[in-house]
Amino acid sequence: GRLAMSYYENFYVSGGYEQEEVKERKVDYIPTDRVTIVPNAKTYQPNDLCELLILAPFSPANGLLILDCNGQVSQPIHFQIESEKDSTTLAFKISKDWVPNFTVYAELTGSTPRETEVSDSLHRPAIATGSTSLEVSKDIYKLNV
Prior knowledge:
The protein has one domain (30-141): Immunoglobulin-like (Sandwich), CATH 2.60.40. The chain is built from one helix and ten strands, in the order αββββββββββ. The protein has one helix at 19-28, and strands spanning 32-34, 36-39, 43-44, 49-55, 61-69, 72-73, 77-81, 87-93, 101-112, 124-136. The strands form two sheets. Strands 1, 3, 5, 6, 7, 9 and 10 form a seven-stranded mixed β-sheet that branches. The chain has a three-stranded antiparallel β-sheet with strand order 2-4-8, with no helix packed on it. The termini are far apart. The model has no long low-confidence stretch (mean pLDDT 85).
């Protein structure tokens, strides 16, 4: 066979940044915080009242609770967390359509103090998300023999 040889004299690497550019990028995005969702039970029966404690990393905040069962989303629940409080409780009925489980998603928007040396700077936007999966008993589908 024939031998082939190739070469390239110039080699370029992209993606290098100067120190100042990296510092600017740290301020350009909004960090996402974590919402903690604490249910009042591990397993529910259809028509039970589910109470969720929503623990927020900042306040005040506007929130949205989304209930998802196998890709079918129920009516979202809007809520607010007041100033000087870090939690709220939400309650809703468990549907028999959510057997065997469903996922609860919570999203919060608000503002929080900036982490800078300047003490009188404006608050920055804040976002927080969280989710948990809850079980619904299948006992309503058992046959009595």
